[in-house]
Amino acid sequence: MHELSICRSVADIVTRHAAGRRVTRVHLRVGALRQVVPDTLVYCWELAHADRPGGEVLAGSVLAVESVPAGVRCRECGAHSELAVPVLRCAACGAADVVLVSGEEFLVTSFEVATDAVEA
After folding, report:
1. Which of 18, 77, 80, 104 could bridge across to 93 with cysteines, CB 3.0–4.6 Å?
2. What is the pLDDT of residues 53-63, one digit of tens each?
3. Is 111 exposed, middle or buried (0-12, 13-18, 19+ CB in 10 A)?
4. 3-state secondary structure the chain
C-alpha cells in the first residue's frame, strides 16, 4: 500500500508550507494513470500524520481528492477524448497515434488553513 507513503510525503509538504497554521483541508488532483487509489489515499490521510513531528498542524484535516480522467488528443483527426479503459487509442477514429493530455497528474493544488494558530 504505497498510498500511505504518498500521504506522508504530502503531509510533510503541507506541514512545511503551513508555517505553523492549522490546516483544515488539503486538495489533491490525481490522474487516472497514476496507479493510486483515491479512496485509499483518503483512508491513509489520518494515519500519515498522526504520529509525526508537526502532525498537530494537520490534526482533524480532510484530504479532498479530485480524480482526473486520462485524456488523449488524436494526431490523425484532432479529436480530444477521455479514456474509459487504459488503451491509448482515439475514441473518435480508433487511431493509435495519440498524445496523452491528462491522467498523469499528482498535484497538491491547495490547502485551507484555520484562522486560529496551533496550540503548543
Report:
1. 77
2. 778 899 999 99
3. buried
4. CCHHHHHHHHHHHHHHHHCCEEEEEEEEEEEHHHCCCHHHHHHHHHHHHCCCCCHHHCCCCEEEEEEECCEEEECCCCCEEECCCCCCCCCCCCCCCEEEEECCCEEEEEEEEEEEECCC
Find the range with the poorest average confidence among 4-13, 43-52, 102-111: 43-52
30: its cell numbers: 490525481
| pTM for this entry | 0.81
Amino acid code (one letter) for 100? L
With CA atoms as reference, report the closest residue to 99 among 117, 81, 119.
81
